[in-house]
Structure formats: structure tokens, C-alpha cells
């Protein structure tokens, strides 16, 4: 699908053009969404440069993601997108800066793009000016992506705090955690940790993109663009620091849950150990009177059986009293 956005005073408008038609003169952004080979060729004919293929976009080498050919900048960064209702993944999106025109190539629907488009198409949005160019659109998309990541990190922080509350603020009247509870905690915390790694990957890609754009600033970009890039760079750095903080908190919670599981396991082993020690004397007494020797006077007495039972009970209670006194129970 090809979507062409043209500048109309202080906002963008969507112009639907067929592959065989000509490109509008006031175009600033061509958005290629899951393009076909014919659509890629049409855009290449419009702008006179090659469009990155899907295979080119998944390359992880720095030289394959950020490079310049004949004055055209090719930039690729992983951007988060939503799969289903909760699951989020990252996918590479390519940005091609050809003069005052921006071409984006993507095979996903990140919410950041939808947010930027909705805002940029409103008159008087404060984001698009009369001198809007492809670089302005690129920085606007990056800003929308970083804002989206900040919102996502806030939600992750709330989930982590909820898990923390369930671990450290268990009230006296509440039931103790079971193995199922611990398993769920580990799963939830681990899932957030895995998701943070995707956020870190996206932030790292955006940060490298901004560094490359700064080093290869188009002529005539203006001081406002440079200041905008610096502001976005500070935002990405602060978000990366926040991701590090949340990752450390997740590691702490994982260590805490594993420690609590070890404590519960030790308590169970302790109970079995005490029970084994407590039943050793009664077992010894029962073994003695089960030897069936002929010369055991107690066996012929009326009080022999009650005495054996009493000895077994007392021998079981004495170790328990001793353990309680020592504080082992």
C-alpha cells in the first residue's frame, strides 16, 4: 500500500495516487506499508533512488542500517508494535531521506505512526509548519515513537509495582503463597523483563538513528531541527536509564521470589527433619519390644503395654520441647 502525505499550509493531507501516476509536487512523505514489488518500483521511479527490501531491513550490521548513497540517507530502526491485545514485538522500519522527501518502508502497524498521522493531519497542530520537510516528518515520527515508549514504560512500571506489593506487603490474615503463586509471579516478572529487552532494543536503534542524522544533517536544516534532535536524544537517554532502573528492579524481584521459594522449601525440609528426629525414639522403643525375646519381664505384666505407649509418647515429646527451647521450631 502506498500512502502519500502532502503539505497543506500547516498540516498534512493524504493523497491516494496510483502506481502509474505522477507524484504530487507538494509531497513530503511517502509511506509504504507492506509494499508489493510493483509499488516499490513505482516509488523508485518517483524519487529516483532504490527502496530497501525486506531482506535489507533485517540486517543487523551498523553499515547496513545507516548509510548514504548519492546524497540519500538510509536509516533503519526497530520500532515496537502490538500483536493481538497484549503481546508486543519489534520490527525494523526503514526511513529514506531523499532531499525534502521522506519515504518510510514498514511491514507492521506501530501505534506511534497512527498517533503522529492523526495529529499531523489536524490544522493548527503545532507539529507541521509551512517549511515542513521529510526531516521534520522523520523527527516527528521519532518523537511519537519515544512518547509511545515512555507511556509503555509507565505501564510496565505499574505492573512491576503491583508484583512488588504482592511480594512484600502480604498481610497477616492472608494465606501464605503457594507454589502456584510463586510460579505465576516468576512468569509475570520474567515476561516484563523480556519485554524490557525489546524496549531497550528499540531505544538503542532510535538513539543510533539520531546520532547518524546529527552527523549527517542536511544542509539548510536550521537550528530548530538541531535543537529538536538534541531534545529527542536527551529523551532517549533518559528512557534508557529508566529501562535500566526497571531491569534492576525486575532482577531484584526475581532474586526475592527465588529466595522466598528457597525459604519455603527449607521450611518444608525442616518439618520433615524434625518429624524424623521426633519419631526416632518411639521407633527405637517399638523396635526393642518387638524383638520377641523370651526373657522380657514387661511383656508378661499388665502394665507392660501402657508403659511402652507412654515411653513412646514421652520420647517423642522430649525432642520437640528441646527444639522449641532452642528456637529451632
Automatic annotation (TrEMBL):
Write down the InterPro entries for this protein, in alphabetical order: CorA_cytoplasmic_dom, CorA_MIT, CorA_TM1_TM2, MgTranspt_CorA/ZnTranspt_ZntB
Give the matching SUPFAM superfamilies: CorA soluble domain-like, Magnesium transport protein CorA, transmembrane region
Catalyzed chemical reaction(s): Mg(2+)(in) = Mg(2+)(out)
**Compartments in which it is found:** Cell inner membrane
| GO function terms (MF aspect) | cobalt ion transmembrane transporter activity; magnesium ion transmembrane transporter activity; nickel cation transmembrane transporter activity
Task: Provide one Gene Ontology cellular component.
Answer: plasma membrane
Where, by residue number, does the polypeptide cross the bilayer? Answer: 271-290, 302-323
Which keywords belong to this entry?
Answer: Cell inner membrane, Cell membrane, Ion transport, Magnesium, Membrane, Transmembrane, Transmembrane helix, Transport
Question: How does the record classify its membrane topology?
Answer: Multi-pass membrane protein
Q: Which domain of life is it from?
A: Bacteria
- Is Nuclease set as a keyword in this record? no
Q: Which Pfam families match?
A: CorA (PF01544)
The keyword Kinase is annotated on this UniProt entry: no
Q: What is its main location?
A: membrane
Q: Which family does it belong to?
A: Belongs to the CorA metal ion transporter (MIT) (TC 1.A.35) family.
Q: What is this protein identified as?
A: Magnesium transport protein CorA
